[in-house]
Amino acid sequence: MDTHKLGSHGLEVAEQGLGCMGMSEFYGEVDDDESIATIHRALDLGVTLLDTADMYGPFTNERLVGRAIANRRDSVVVATKFGNVRGENGERLGIRGDAEYVRQACDGSLQRLGIDHIDLYYQHRVDRQVPIEETVGAMAELVAAGKIRYLGLSEASAETLRRAHAVHPISALQTEYSLWTRDVEERILPTTRELGIGFVAYSPLGRGFLSGRFSSPDDIPEGDFRASNPRFQGDNFTRNFAIVERVRELADDKGVTAAQLALAWVQSRGDDVVPIPGTKRVKYLEENVAATDIELSDLDLERLEEAAPPGQTAGDRYPDMSPVNL
Fold first, then answer.
1. Over the stretch 67-88, which tens digit does the pLDDT of each residue have?
2. What is the distance between the alpha carbons of residues 296 and 302, in angstroms, rounded to a whole number?
3. Total-model pTM
4. Distance between CA atoms of 171 and 274, rounded to whole angstroms?
5. How many CB atoms lie within 10 A of CB 316?
6. Annotated catalytic residue within 27, 56, 121, 122
7. Is 56 a catalytic residue?
8. In the β-sheet with 170-176, what is the strand arrangement from edge to edge?
9. What are the beta bridge partners of residue 123?
10. Which DSSP string do the residues of 5-34 spell out, in sequence order?
């Protein structure tokens, strides 16, 4: 794979990463053996960026990633996150960005991952009760201590990003971005580019919707959080499925899958954009990675723009959008 720079301070990753969240929670049943095999296959195929967070599981996803990379640490860029606080039983305890919690969370992640430093450490959600300067200041102290190498934010607003970057260089902003989530194009992407910050696109397949996997809400597995996602419900589902059908028609014309076409579109957004499609199965990983070989013509991009213009998608991204883009 090609290598892309995230930010202007030395962080480099392969052009496509791997989101590991669904290996431990949110997307139905889990299979650790298959998940570890998926991570190993990703590394074999040239993927370098593995994305996890302390809240996934909670806590179990970091341990899973740690086991998977135990003998391959040198070939991995480990990204993890703090800020969405959860208890051992999964209870949600709010959002924290105070300096004391930043330090505690980092030490916990290092222990679970079994590594001596985190390559890219994100604040998962902005704490509206704590100035971003305090949070990033504490993260900068962890850089000085050698516990983390590069800083990131997730789902932060353009204004918050500017304030954070003034305290310590931010290497990456992670935010949802796909054919059906394009609001970052208005203010977020212009800001990251102005400041020289890389952009990591999570859910580049619209949580699997753009793959064409679901033809009705009944297809969503039991225990899958997408059942409560507004975009997967009722009339919203019907309207959004029309987008998927158009994307699938274009993919058929090009001889690729809908998922591959959707990924290729994200990859076409610029060398500063790195998608991290999530999967827990080797076969879907291989399909995703193959999208890095797809070249989109001007006509392809024009047709995709007609199929999925900004603002076309029905429904909010989350049942509760209040912690997003603060």
1. 999 999 999 999 999 999 999 8
2. 10
3. 0.96
4. 12
5. 13
6. 56
7. yes
8. 18-19, 49-51, 77-82, 118-123, 148-154, 170-176, 198-202, 273-275
9. 82, 153
10. EETTTTEEEESS-EE-GGGTSSBS---HHH
